[in-house]
Amino acid sequence: MNETESQWDKLLKIKTTGRDDSHADQYRYPYEPTPYSVLERLANSGLIGKGNTLLDYGTGKGRVCFYLSYQTRCHSIGVEYDERIFSGAEENRLHAVSGNRTAFEMKAAETYPVSTEVDRCYFFNPFSVELLQKVLAQIYASYYENPRELLLFFYYPSEEYLSCLMTEEQLLFYDEIDTRDLFGGNNEREKILIFEVI
């Protein structure tokens, strides 16, 4: 385990390291936390601030919510369907330094109604394209109810995700945050793609 990862967990008073694929299947992918170095780059982008509410899909143990709430002062909501992993997020929330700005919902992402407060959504390949399309429908419904600047962040996007996102009429490519330099090498997937709902 990377030392920086455990240092951040310690500072935030949470436990989020490690991978868990005990309940993964063809639709829902394993829990794997986003590296802190990637989250730091996202936090420094200026695209998330204290006036924002971030929704993290497939939140796992809540790392994205805790870190971004701590660094940017945003409010965050994590959605997780796996009861055992969800209980880890709730346990973390009791001790986390940014716990009062975070909330977690145990629900399947595709049936989760997106609050009209939410204006930032984060994805680290949490589920299949089939589920992604259902989730996008929920996001669009929320947007039509309350039109606002609504940005979607996709870290390490798969080919399937890219194909889907590029054909969505309600999405406009907004920007890209390159993260290849953080890991040495030239992995084309090492980036955060940002789309705006229109």
Structure overview:
The structure is a single chain. Strands 3-2-1-4-5-7-6 form a 7-stranded mixed β-sheet, with helices on one face. Helix 2 packs parallel to helix 3. By secondary structure, the chain is an alpha/beta fold. It contains 6 helices and 7 strands.
What would the average pLDDT be, to the nearest integer?
93
User: What series of H and E elements makes up the topology?
Assistant: HHEHEHEEHEHEE
Strand order of the largest sheet: 3-2-1-4-5-7-6
Structural class call reads alpha/beta
Please indicate the count of domains. Answer: 1
- Determine the strand fraction and express it as a percent band: 15-25%
What characteristic shape results from the CA principal axes? Answer: globular
- Report the strand count: 7
How many separate helices?
6
CATH hierarchy class name = Alpha Beta
State the fourth-level CATH superfamily: Vaccinia Virus protein VP39
Q: What is the architecture at the second tier of CATH?
A: 3-Layer(aba) Sandwich
Largest sheet: 7 strands, mixed
* Helix proportion range: 25-40%
CATH topology: Rossmann fold
Low-pLDDT residue spans: none
* Ends apart, CA distance between termini: 40 Å
- Radius of gyration, rounded? 16 Å
- Oligomeric form: single chain
Organism: Fusicatenibacter faecihominis
InterPro entries: SAM-dependent_MTases_sf
Protein name: Class I SAM-dependent methyltransferase
GO molecular function, one term: methyltransferase activity
